[in-house]
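Title: Prediction job returns without error message
Component: structure pipeline
Severity: low
Priority: P3
Assignee: unassigned

Description:
Job completed but the reporter wants confirmation the result is attached to the right record. Sequence as submitted:
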Amino acid sequence: MDWNFIYSRNENLNEVYRSFSVDLERYIKEMENYVEAIDGSVSSLAGAWSGPEYDAFKASMHKATDEIKRSLERGTELTAQMKEAQRRLADGLARMRARYGG
């Protein structure tokens, strides 16, 4: 069996998992900052805009940002799962090397 080929393929997969989780984590943090900025902007309008139209706008924006926040929470869960998969793959590669060399 060509262990070097197996190591190489799995190391590539390990890097894909690692890279994807790092990129997703970075994206989530950026989006959280944007959502926070949107929430702040909507709140700051209260001083210049009031009444039912503002209340409707504020409620609409709150609903939209809540949906985004829930999506980001799912993304955070996915990131954790990807990191765990990457950790397990790295552990499996280390055990394969210890047992079969490489």
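Comment from assignee: result matches the submitted record. Residues 21 and 81 are 9 Å apart (CA to CA).
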